[in-house]
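@channel sequence for tomorrow's demo:
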Amino acid sequence: MTLTPLPAFDDNYLWLLDNGREALVVDPGDAAPVAAALDARRLTLAGILLTHHHGDHVGGVAALRPRLQGPVCGPARERLPGPVRPVQGGDTVELLGLRFAVLDVPGHTAGHVAYFAAEVPGQDPLLFCGDTLFSAGCGRLFEGTPAQMHASLQSLAALPAATRLCCAHEYTLSNLRFAREVDPGNAALAAYAAWCEAERAAGRPTLPGRLDTELRVNPFLRCAEPALRDAARRHAPLNTPAAPSPVDVFATLREWKNTFR
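C-alpha coordinates (generated this afternoon):
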Protein backbone atom coordinates (compact mmCIF):
# COMPACT_ATOMS: atom_id res chain seq x y z
CA MET A 1 0.00 0.00 0.00
CA THR A 2 1.24 3.47 -0.89
CA LEU A 3 0.00 6.44 1.14
CA THR A 4 0.35 9.88 -0.46
CA PRO A 5 -0.60 13.33 0.87
CA LEU A 6 -1.76 15.41 -2.09
CA PRO A 7 -1.35 19.15 -1.36
CA ALA A 8 -4.36 21.34 -2.16
CA PHE A 9 -5.40 24.95 -1.55
CA ASP A 10 -3.12 26.71 0.95
CA ASP A 11 -2.48 23.92 3.44
CA ASN A 12 -4.84 20.96 2.85
CA TYR A 13 -3.79 17.38 2.29
CA LEU A 14 -6.06 15.10 0.29
CA TRP A 15 -4.99 11.57 1.21
CA LEU A 16 -4.55 8.97 -1.54
CA LEU A 17 -4.07 5.30 -0.64
CA ASP A 18 -3.37 2.82 -3.44
CA ASN A 19 -2.27 -0.75 -4.03
CA GLY A 20 -0.77 -0.11 -7.45
CA ARG A 21 -4.04 -0.77 -9.27
CA GLU A 22 -6.85 0.81 -7.26
CA ALA A 23 -6.99 3.83 -5.00
CA LEU A 24 -9.19 5.49 -2.44
CA VAL A 25 -9.11 9.18 -1.67
CA VAL A 26 -10.05 10.90 1.56
CA ASP A 27 -11.64 14.36 1.69
CA PRO A 28 -11.08 15.45 -1.92
CA GLY A 29 -11.83 19.15 -1.62
CA ASP A 30 -10.21 19.67 -5.02
CA ALA A 31 -10.52 17.11 -7.83
CA ALA A 32 -7.53 18.30 -9.85
CA PRO A 33 -4.64 16.89 -7.76
CA VAL A 34 -6.53 13.63 -7.30
CA ALA A 35 -7.16 13.23 -11.03
CA ALA A 36 -3.54 14.06 -11.80
CA ALA A 37 -2.27 11.42 -9.35
CA LEU A 38 -4.68 8.79 -10.66
CA ASP A 39 -3.63 9.47 -14.23
CA ALA A 40 0.09 9.52 -13.47
CA ARG A 41 -0.10 6.15 -11.70
CA ARG A 42 -2.82 4.66 -13.93
CA LEU A 43 -5.04 3.96 -10.94
CA THR A 44 -8.76 3.21 -10.76
CA LEU A 45 -10.65 5.26 -8.19
CA ALA A 46 -12.29 2.60 -6.02
CA GLY A 47 -13.82 4.79 -3.33
CA ILE A 48 -14.03 8.14 -1.57
CA LEU A 49 -14.13 8.64 2.20
CA LEU A 50 -15.46 11.90 3.63
CA THR A 51 -14.92 12.94 7.24
CA HIS A 52 -17.18 16.01 7.36
CA HIS A 53 -19.13 18.46 5.24
CA HIS A 54 -16.80 21.46 4.85
CA GLY A 55 -16.19 22.56 1.28
CA ASP A 56 -12.42 22.08 1.37
CA HIS A 57 -13.11 18.41 2.07
CA VAL A 58 -16.00 17.67 -0.30
CA GLY A 59 -15.68 20.24 -3.11
CA GLY A 60 -14.07 17.84 -5.60
CA VAL A 61 -16.48 14.94 -5.20
CA ALA A 62 -18.79 15.86 -8.08
CA ALA A 63 -15.92 16.18 -10.56
CA LEU A 64 -14.49 12.81 -9.51
CA ARG A 65 -17.75 10.87 -9.79
CA PRO A 66 -17.43 10.06 -13.53
CA ARG A 67 -14.26 8.06 -12.87
CA LEU A 68 -15.42 6.53 -9.57
CA GLN A 69 -15.93 2.75 -9.47
CA GLY A 70 -17.01 2.41 -5.88
CA PRO A 71 -18.83 4.19 -3.05
CA VAL A 72 -18.65 7.64 -1.58
CA CYS A 73 -18.93 7.18 2.19
CA GLY A 74 -19.58 10.04 4.57
CA PRO A 75 -21.04 10.95 7.96
CA ALA A 76 -24.71 10.10 8.31
CA ARG A 77 -25.43 13.19 10.41
CA GLU A 78 -24.18 15.75 7.91
CA ARG A 79 -25.42 17.11 4.61
CA LEU A 80 -23.06 16.02 1.83
CA PRO A 81 -23.05 16.17 -1.99
CA GLY A 82 -24.96 12.96 -2.74
CA PRO A 83 -25.39 10.23 -3.43
CA VAL A 84 -23.40 9.12 -0.37
CA ARG A 85 -23.35 5.91 1.64
CA PRO A 86 -24.07 7.22 5.16
CA VAL A 87 -21.79 5.88 7.91
CA GLN A 88 -21.49 6.41 11.64
CA GLY A 89 -19.59 5.05 14.61
CA GLY A 90 -19.66 1.26 14.74
CA ASP A 91 -19.93 0.85 10.97
CA THR A 92 -17.16 -0.58 8.81
CA VAL A 93 -16.10 0.25 5.26
CA GLU A 94 -14.15 -2.23 3.16
CA LEU A 95 -11.96 -0.84 0.38
CA LEU A 96 -8.72 -2.04 -1.22
CA GLY A 97 -8.95 -5.19 0.87
CA LEU A 98 -8.78 -3.15 4.09
CA ARG A 99 -11.44 -2.84 6.76
CA PHE A 100 -11.94 0.67 8.10
CA ALA A 101 -13.79 1.13 11.37
CA VAL A 102 -15.88 4.29 11.41
CA LEU A 103 -15.43 6.38 14.57
CA ASP A 104 -17.75 9.18 15.67
CA VAL A 105 -15.57 12.19 16.55
CA PRO A 106 -17.88 15.23 16.90
CA GLY A 107 -16.52 18.63 17.87
CA HIS A 108 -15.16 20.35 14.79
CA THR A 109 -18.53 19.60 13.17
CA ALA A 110 -21.53 17.90 14.70
CA GLY A 111 -21.29 14.68 12.70
CA HIS A 112 -17.56 14.40 12.02
CA VAL A 113 -16.25 10.84 11.59
CA ALA A 114 -12.82 9.25 11.28
CA TYR A 115 -11.74 6.03 9.56
CA PHE A 116 -9.36 3.59 11.28
CA ALA A 117 -7.68 0.56 9.66
CA ALA A 118 -6.20 -1.60 12.40
CA GLU A 119 -4.62 -4.06 9.99
CA VAL A 120 -2.62 -2.87 6.98
CA PRO A 121 -0.41 -5.73 5.74
CA GLY A 122 3.22 -4.99 6.50
CA GLN A 123 2.46 -1.48 7.79
CA ASP A 124 1.33 0.31 10.94
CA PRO A 125 -2.37 1.05 11.58
CA LEU A 126 -3.85 3.98 9.72
CA LEU A 127 -6.22 6.75 10.82
CA PHE A 128 -7.89 9.32 8.57
CA CYS A 129 -8.93 11.91 11.13
CA GLY A 130 -9.99 14.90 9.01
CA ASP A 131 -10.01 18.11 11.07
CA THR A 132 -10.45 16.52 14.50
CA LEU A 133 -6.80 15.85 15.33
CA PHE A 134 -3.79 17.70 13.93
CA SER A 135 -0.16 17.21 14.75
CA ALA A 136 0.39 19.15 18.00
CA GLY A 137 -3.17 20.50 17.76
CA CYS A 138 -6.85 19.89 17.11
CA GLY A 139 -9.66 21.40 15.10
CA ARG A 140 -11.67 24.46 16.01
CA LEU A 141 -15.07 23.91 17.57
CA PHE A 142 -17.42 25.14 14.88
CA GLU A 143 -20.43 23.00 15.80
CA GLY A 144 -19.53 20.91 18.86
CA THR A 145 -18.77 21.50 22.52
CA PRO A 146 -15.48 21.25 24.43
CA ALA A 147 -16.78 18.12 26.15
CA GLN A 148 -17.55 16.50 22.80
CA MET A 149 -14.19 17.35 21.28
CA HIS A 150 -12.28 16.26 24.36
CA ALA A 151 -14.12 12.92 24.32
CA SER A 152 -13.42 12.54 20.59
CA LEU A 153 -9.70 13.20 21.08
CA GLN A 154 -9.52 10.78 23.99
CA SER A 155 -11.10 8.07 21.85
CA LEU A 156 -8.39 8.63 19.24
CA ALA A 157 -5.70 8.69 21.93
CA ALA A 158 -6.75 5.17 22.93
CA LEU A 159 -5.86 3.71 19.50
CA PRO A 160 -2.61 1.74 19.10
CA ALA A 161 0.44 3.92 19.74
CA ALA A 162 1.97 3.10 16.33
CA THR A 163 -1.08 4.45 14.45
CA ARG A 164 -0.24 6.73 11.54
CA LEU A 165 -2.26 9.95 11.66
CA CYS A 166 -3.47 11.34 8.35
CA CYS A 167 -4.55 14.85 9.31
CA ALA A 168 -6.14 17.05 6.68
CA HIS A 169 -4.02 20.20 7.09
CA GLU A 170 -0.33 21.09 7.34
CA TYR A 171 -0.81 23.15 10.49
CA THR A 172 2.06 21.53 12.37
CA LEU A 173 4.49 24.44 12.72
CA SER A 174 1.85 26.91 13.90
CA ASN A 175 0.48 24.31 16.30
CA LEU A 176 3.96 23.70 17.66
CA ARG A 177 4.47 27.39 18.37
CA PHE A 178 1.38 27.32 20.55
CA ALA A 179 2.29 24.00 22.18
CA ARG A 180 5.72 25.33 23.17
CA GLU A 181 4.12 28.44 24.66
CA VAL A 182 1.83 26.23 26.76
CA ASP A 183 4.39 23.55 27.67
CA PRO A 184 7.86 25.12 27.42
CA GLY A 185 9.60 22.50 29.56
CA ASN A 186 8.68 19.56 27.32
CA ALA A 187 11.91 18.16 25.84
CA ALA A 188 10.08 15.78 23.50
CA LEU A 189 8.13 18.74 22.12
CA ALA A 190 11.31 20.73 21.49
CA ALA A 191 12.91 17.81 19.66
CA TYR A 192 9.81 17.22 17.54
CA ALA A 193 9.59 20.92 16.67
CA ALA A 194 13.19 20.87 15.44
CA TRP A 195 12.47 17.83 13.24
CA CYS A 196 9.31 19.40 11.79
CA GLU A 197 11.06 22.66 11.03
CA ALA A 198 13.76 20.77 9.13
CA GLU A 199 11.18 18.77 7.17
CA ARG A 200 9.26 21.87 6.11
CA ALA A 201 12.46 23.71 5.22
CA ALA A 202 13.26 20.80 2.89
CA GLY A 203 9.80 21.02 1.31
CA ARG A 204 8.56 17.79 2.88
CA PRO A 205 5.27 17.28 4.78
CA THR A 206 5.29 16.66 8.51
CA LEU A 207 2.45 14.16 8.00
CA PRO A 208 1.43 11.44 8.45
CA GLY A 209 2.19 11.77 12.13
CA ARG A 210 2.27 9.04 14.73
CA LEU A 211 0.05 8.70 17.75
CA ASP A 212 2.91 7.85 20.12
CA THR A 213 4.52 11.17 19.24
CA GLU A 214 1.28 13.09 19.71
CA LEU A 215 0.78 11.55 23.14
CA ARG A 216 4.06 13.22 24.17
CA VAL A 217 3.73 16.59 22.44
CA ASN A 218 0.08 17.47 21.76
CA PRO A 219 -1.37 19.60 24.57
CA PHE A 220 -4.94 18.77 23.58
CA LEU A 221 -4.33 15.06 24.23
CA ARG A 222 -2.73 15.72 27.61
CA CYS A 223 -5.29 17.83 29.43
CA ALA A 224 -5.15 15.67 32.56
CA GLU A 225 -1.44 16.33 33.08
CA PRO A 226 -0.31 18.83 35.76
CA ALA A 227 1.80 20.92 33.33
CA LEU A 228 -1.21 21.58 31.08
CA ARG A 229 -3.57 22.15 34.00
CA ASP A 230 -1.16 24.72 35.46
CA ALA A 231 -0.76 26.46 32.10
CA ALA A 232 -4.53 26.78 31.73
CA ARG A 233 -4.89 28.27 35.19
CA ARG A 234 -2.05 30.75 34.61
CA HIS A 235 -3.54 31.88 31.30
CA ALA A 236 -7.16 32.24 32.42
CA PRO A 237 -7.35 32.12 36.23
CA LEU A 238 -10.84 33.62 36.31
CA ASN A 239 -12.25 31.15 33.80
CA THR A 240 -10.51 28.00 34.99
CA PRO A 241 -11.73 26.32 38.21
CA ALA A 242 -9.34 25.84 41.12
CA ALA A 243 -9.43 22.10 40.49
CA PRO A 244 -10.11 21.99 36.76
CA SER A 245 -11.26 18.84 35.04
CA PRO A 246 -9.54 17.73 31.83
CA VAL A 247 -12.53 19.17 29.93
CA ASP A 248 -12.06 22.53 31.70
CA VAL A 249 -8.38 22.49 30.73
CA PHE A 250 -9.23 21.58 27.15
CA ALA A 251 -11.78 24.41 26.89
CA THR A 252 -9.26 26.95 28.16
CA LEU A 253 -6.50 25.74 25.85
CA ARG A 254 -8.79 25.73 22.83
CA GLU A 255 -9.96 29.29 23.50
CA TRP A 256 -6.35 30.35 24.01
CA LYS A 257 -5.32 28.76 20.72
CA ASN A 258 -8.14 30.56 18.91
CA THR A 259 -6.49 33.92 19.57
CA PHE A 260 -2.82 32.88 19.70
CA ARG A 261 -0.52 34.57 17.21
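heads up for whoever presents: Residues 187-201 form the longest helix (15 residues).
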